[in-house]
Amino acid sequence: xxxxxxxxxxxxxxxxxxxxxxxxxxxxxxxQLHNYKATVxxxxxxxxxxxxxxxxxxNQLIKKYNGKPIQFIGVIPSNDFxxxxxxxxxxxxxxxxxxxxxxxxxxxxxxxxTITPEVFLLGKTGVIKYSGRIDNWAFDxxxxxxVITEHNLIDxxxxxxxxxxxxxxxxxxxxCFIE
Length: 179
Prior knowledge:
This protein is α/β, with parallel strands linked by helices. About 25% of the residues lie in helices and about 30% in strands. The radius of gyration is 15 Å and the shape is globular.
């Protein structure tokens, strides 16, 4: 049985034909986002130390926006990880995010994702409103701030939810390269 997640994408970044797999091996089609004001797509890798470290932040974001017209999806852009690897990552870090597999990295290529963790905030019509880092905690490989001073993703989500323009549309992501 096929499972469908309903996302909508504009013609410029139409990804509805990109084959993704849920963790049971079912084909997922991405289309029709109109039920949500925004969709957050996290590109993640189970073996990336920053992806592991950011699971707490991701869970906090999901909890913070519970009941709001926003959805969160995690994409594993590789065929390098088995379903067991992904499930172990999800279990080990108590990640409450729905995860899908982009086995040929087609979604990553279409949206322009090159790093994990990297996030894309899509508006109701699928236009990319923000892309890049979650916040400025990690500012270089192996270098982290003790105090986060910029919450790029939260700022972008809040702007979209309030029907305002996103001030910072792109911020450089730091992490592991998508291969």
